[in-house]
Model the fold of this input.
Amino acid sequence: MAAHPTASAPPPYSGTPTSVPSPFDEMHQYTMYYTTSRLNVRLQPEPQTTSSPAPYYMQSSLSVTKPQLMLRLGSEKTSPMVAFAKIQNTSRHMLLGRGDCQNDPEDSIVWEELHREKGMLHRSDYAFSCTASEKTAQGKRLQFGWRKDMGKCGSTVYDCVDDQERVVARMASGGALNFRKGGELEVRGGLEQGVREMLIVSALAIWTSEAFYYQSLWRGYPSESEKRNRAGKGHVDGKDGVAADAKSDH
Done:
């Protein structure tokens, strides 16, 4: 198995994320629905149209030596694996990888470290790097930082920024009392598939650590009525966050 890399330094962050210019002009939203077990979730694109991105399935395991989180491209646990995450019992940092950890040769796996900035007794920001694979940016190292919204007491809400402080993803937990939805995830359009999937698997790893293990009480995303009110007022996409309650979102 390839050696674990040292995480690159987190990108600079001013606390005021900027809007993202074209081609990053649209957020793709996924709703995280629990399966019969709260250990697995389906990431369903919203709204569901012919132009919506493909769904994903996060399968989890209780292994201590192998990756515990497996991201599959499709709506079932038999769908092909595209990325995975390993939670380390002896380190506060996590490991991310692309491909299929169950079938790919071990020496072909390139690990990326999801660096946790604070100790396990505190909520934390995270950072990771990955390599672009498309011809236009082949070999370029991309840096991302997941920044927790500290104003959301009792809930888990994160913005992910790139090295230019542009918001490229968001994650909000569903709360411990929500037995239907694990949370909501948004990822900017215009990103290559491999980078998008690394953002998704890193968000799921943070969700598992910060929201699931710590059991965030309240949902961190707006209710459907709040979303409709915002849309009616012509809300401009920015650093969102709505005070959440303990009700399940139906």
Q: What stands out?
A: The two ends are 44 Å apart (CA to CA). Residues 39 and 71 are 13 Å apart (CA to CA). Helices lie at 193-213, 224-232. The first strand starts at residue 27 and ends at 34.
